[in-house]
Amino acid sequence: MPAPAAASAEKEAPTLPQELVSKLLALDDDYTKIQKRLEREIRELEESYDKELTPIIEARAQLLAEPGEQGSNHVNGFWKKVLRNSTEFEDDVEEWDLPVLEYLVDITADDLFPSSPAGDEAPCGFSLTFAFAENPYFSNDKLTKKYHYGEGKEFLKQTEIVEIESDGIDWKPGMDVTVEVVRKKKKGSGAKNRAAMKTVTRDRPSFFKFFTSLGPNYPIPEWLELPDDEDSEDDGGLPPWSAQPWQSVFRR
């Protein structure tokens, strides 16, 4: 006996009356308005405390810039220790990153606003700026990474990070710590090939891969392992770690 068709075996979901749908949508709009007001008031409260925190952060920067007993500034190595001791970055800092991070002198976070902000308009993202002293590794004096917000899925009313824009690192010749140079034997059975060696450059883990642009307008790096789930495409190709709220780690 043939099996019944799948369509007849499944019950269709009941269709809600249009009048009920309209009332539910109106309630949802009211809920969203209150939620937006809450977000605005929280933002205003944070801004008021940021004003009190600013002179403390500036005083800290001045203290770290003062020369120490050995003649170098106290800031040398300070931010390297911050990154290594933070839960957000401790697993990303590799041994070969440490000499470069000795030159990291400051990290700041700032809100991003639309080019023509209107009154109390909410930020459209945030940025992290890493300032570096002159060093033998790259020519940048700062590296900035911008996180751009976008609307989430319909009806969820969530704000999500939809694109990450990062400065590129201008590595000096032979100083790129995100890659390593290895020597390999050439393939072949002859005595000449067995003795011959070739030089190969390959990627390796590094904190400095943090400075990578991600999103629908950027190619996915070969070294990046994307999550194997159905939501990865919905997030514009952004892996979970890229959307972490780093702004909360570093105060302005």
UniProtKB/TrEMBL annotation:
<dbReference type="GO" id="GO:0006334">
    <property type="term" value="P:nucleosome assembly"/>
</dbReference>
<comment type="similarity">
    <text>Belongs to the nucleosome assembly protein (NAP) family.</text>
</comment>
<protein>
    <submittedName>
        <fullName>Nucleosome assembly</fullName>
    </submittedName>
</protein>
<dbReference type="InterPro" id="IPR002164">
    <property type="entry name" value="NAP_family"/>
</dbReference>
<dbReference type="InterPro" id="IPR037231">
    <property type="entry name" value="NAP-like_sf"/>
</dbReference>
<feature type="compositionally biased region" description="Acidic residues">
    <location>
        <begin position="225"/>
        <end position="236"/>
    </location>
</feature>
<dbReference type="Pfam" id="PF00956">
    <property type="entry name" value="NAP"/>
</dbReference>
<feature type="region of interest" description="Disordered">
    <location>
        <begin position="214"/>
        <end position="252"/>
    </location>
</feature>
<dbReference type="GO" id="GO:0005634">
    <property type="term" value="C:nucleus"/>
</dbReference>
